[in-house]
Amino acid sequence: MVPVVGSVVELISVTLRLARRIKTMAQTAKQSKRRCGLLKDRVGFIEKLLEQLKATRWVPDQATQATLENLHDALDSGQLLVQACQRRRTPWSYLTLFCSGGEGDMDGEFDGVDSQIDRAMQPFHISNLIVLLSLNQENFFMNVLEKLLRDGACKRLPQGDKDEIKKIMNDSDRHHMSPNAKKMLELIINDLKLGEVDTWGASSANLHKAGGISSNESDQLKQVEDIAKDIMELKKAEPAVNKQIGREVQWLAQLAQQVVHLTQHPLAPQMMMRHRDDLLHPMDDLLHDLEEARNLLMPKQPSSSGHGGVGITAAMKATAIYQVGYKIEYSLQVLPIVTMREFEMDRA
Q1: Ramachandran region of residue 101, left (φ > 0), alpha (ψ -120 to 50) or beta?
Q2: 197-221 b/e (C-beta count within 10 Å ≥ 16 → b)
């Protein structure tokens, strides 16, 4: 049950504490250690996501607040399950485990918690994309300013105003400007005909690149979309090969579908942009993790000797799918949040 809190920030803090308790308890589980470890991994990514959300100056709507409450409820169920795993197995439970050939009844309970988290995370992702669209509408005035500058607004100013603008630019720290600010600076410099931009420590081309998506970033966006579509196609054949991991493959394909939707979002180019040189971009991780997921689903070719490679059990493959899927899920969730923060910095 979600505790009574005064604000969404408090709710995020309460949920973060719950996530950390689950991670701590999962490390000391006496039974279902594999599933406890997987839950710990997933909760760890949720913790990182909430930390990113907490860092934004963002006011959620009621629907998003309800989603956060559902996420807290799901983690609460996970905490109860991990608490139950602190008890050592009895002789009877070992017999049940042997007869079931798996982790016993607890496996189904972990599946239930995973599904509960899935139901909380998907609307959360959609809500963030909607918020991102609303923030983009606020860039309208920046677009108007750009049109005015391209039309020669600075060139038509009295000489005294031009000199004042030049002084302000000389006193500005270009290296800590947002991409939009750098783009506007280039337009002002060109409009005032200040000469070589290299006197600012960068070429005009570099300033322009900072304000928009590069061809490499555009290619990467297409690559992300193509690999996600490959995963969706591979999913159609995988359950027929190994029905034991059908649920995991289905879940991975659903994540791939969300990735495709993300790449087709109106603000996908903005999500690709490297806003800060020192920022490790989540899209890089997403591309790497999608490639790993695709390799997991690719049919394994027999070795040159005519024998297959080292065998991998269904449980091992399911674990690998979960591990890479949690990373994809995190990137999906955090990309809109990182972009929201960049919008805030552009407005600052």
Answers
A1: left
A2: beebebeeeebebbbebeeebeebb
Q: What angle do CA 335, 267, 347 make, to 5 degrees?
A: 80
> Tokens 């108007």 belong to which residue?
144
Cα distances from 174 to residues 1, 74, 142, 149, 293, in angstroms, run 49, 45, 18, 19, 40
Selection from 208, 252, 217, 209 nearest residue 233 by Cα? 252
Specify the pLDDT at position 184.
78
Helices (H), 211-313: 215-241, 246-263, 268-272, 282-297
Q: How far, CA to CA in Å, does 154 sit from each of 102, 157, 172, 321?
A: 72, 5, 18, 56
DSSP secondary structure string for all residues of 79-136: HHHHHHTTSPPPHHHHHHHHHHTSSTTHHHHHHHHHHHHHHHHHHHHHHHHHHHHHHH
Higher pLDDT, 299 or 295: 295
The CA distance from 130 to 141, in Å, is: 20
**For tokens 């070429």, what's the residue?**
203
d(CA 158, CA 318): 69
Mind listing the pLDDT tens digit for each residue in 114-139? 999 999 988 877 777 776 766 666 56
Q: For the whole model, what pTM was predicted?
A: 0.72
Comparing CA positions, the residue from 109, 112, 102, 101 lying closest to residue 85 is 109
Range with the poorest average pLDDT among 19-23, 63-67, 288-292: 63-67
Kindly list the domain boundaries of the chain, sorted by start residue. 1-137, 140-210, 213-348
Residue 128 sits at φ, ψ, to 5 deg, of: -65, -35
Closest CA to 317 of 213, 244, 229, 224: 244
Q: Length of the chain in residues, anyone?
A: 348
Query: Would you say 217 and 270 are in contact if contact means Cβ atoms under 8 Å apart?
Result: no
| Average pLDDT of the residues of the chain | 77
Q: Are 180 and 211 in contact (CB under 8 A)?
A: yes
